[in-house]
Each structure stands twice: as C-alpha cells, then as structure tokens.
Amino acid sequence: MEVILKDDVKGLGYKNDIVEVRPGYGRNYLIPQGLAVIADKSSKKVVAENIRQAAHKAEKIKNDAQELANSIGDLTVEIPAKVGETGKIFGSVTTLQLSEALKAKGFDVDRKRISFDQDVKSAGEYTATLSLHKEVKHQVKFNVVAE
C-alpha cells in the first residue's frame, strides 16, 4: 500500500515522501493518527505541487539547520545525574535531559530529533545524534557527571 506522509515518521520517511507500507500499518496506525494519506493519483499531484512551491522554503530550512549544526560545533554538554558507588546512574539519561541541557546553552533542539548511539546508564562520555533536517545530521558529545 502506498501512502504519502503528512509528517516525519521515524524509521519510515519524511514529510511528503511516498512510501510503501503494509496495509494494516497504513490503515490502522498511520492514517488514523493523521501521519499519512493514501497515495492516489490526485493526492500525488497535490503533493507534487506543494513540493514545487515549497522548494525555496525547504532550502532556507536546510540552511537554518546547517547553521544550527555549525553553531553547536564540537560542544560538550554536561548532564548531572545521581550516581551510585559503582558509577552506575539511577535510571538513565533521556533525550529530554539532553534537550534541556542544550536549551540551557542556547540551542533549541526538540527531544524527538535526538537519538543516542547507546544506552546511557553510567557516568562517562557519550555521543548523541541530532537529526536537524533530513540531510543535516550532527554528532554532539555529552558527559554524564555525578550530582
């Protein structure tokens, strides 16, 4: 079943992409959640026109994402956490905590656009990937330190 995505769906595609999904996933999740519409002839024409009109806007958004990635650069963020005697933290560090730490430094990155390369369950240095745009990905380092 072909659907047109109305919003970015992690692991599937980006807004206005035409993707092939299983019928149950499309009908029972994507369409009811408002994340996609069925890709018929008329909706494909509408999407093509929208893409054509939004091409210059998309370039500006990409440039803004690239500027944000360049301004973050090789910044290292410290995230305080409660640490036990063995160095393991209580719970784990989440994307929300990293998003708030970046916001405190002056960079507004949505937590949904952050992904960790590995689980953060002990104190130390880690790397996260920021998906600022579908063509702009940036690595940011962060340290988990004891409170």
Your description of this structure?
Helices cover 33% and strands 27% of the residues. The chain has 147 residues and is α+β, with helices and mostly antiparallel strands. The protein folds into 2 domains: 2-53, Ribosomal protein L9, N-terminal domain (Ribosomal Protein L9, domain 1); 65-146, Ribosomal Protein L9, domain 2 (Roll), CATH 3.10.430.100. The protein has a 4-stranded mixed sheet. It has a 3-stranded antiparallel sheet with strand order 2-1-3, with helices on one face. The model has no long low-confidence stretch (mean pLDDT 89). Residues 48-78 form a coiled coil. Residues 64-146 form the Large ribosomal subunit protein bL9 C-terminal domain. Keywords: Coiled coil, Ribonucleoprotein, Ribosomal protein, RNA-binding, rRNA-binding. Binds to the 23S rRNA. GO terms for molecular function: rRNA binding; structural constituent of ribosome.
Mean pLDDT: 89
- How would you spell out the order of helices and strands? EEHEHHEHEEE
Structural class: alpha+beta
* Total domain modules: 2
Q: How helical, in percent, are the residues?
A: 25-40%
Number of helices: 4
Record field, number of beta strands: 7
What is the CATH topology of the largest domain?
Answer: Ribosomal Protein L9, domain 2
Give the overall form. elongated
Distance between the termini: 51 Å
Runs with pLDDT <50, length 5+? none
Strand content: 25-35%
CATH architecture level-2 label of the largest domain: Roll
- Main sheet: strands, sense, barrel: 4 strands, mixed
The radius of gyration is 19 Å
CATH class of the largest domain: Alpha Beta
Domain Ribosomal protein L9: 1-45
Pfam families: Ribosomal_L9_C, Ribosomal_L9_N
InterPro entries: Ribosomal_bL9, Ribosomal_bL9/RNase_H1_N, Ribosomal_bL9_bac/chp, Ribosomal_bL9_C, Ribosomal_bL9_C_sf, Ribosomal_bL9_N, Ribosomal_bL9_N_sf
Function: Binds to the 23S rRNA.
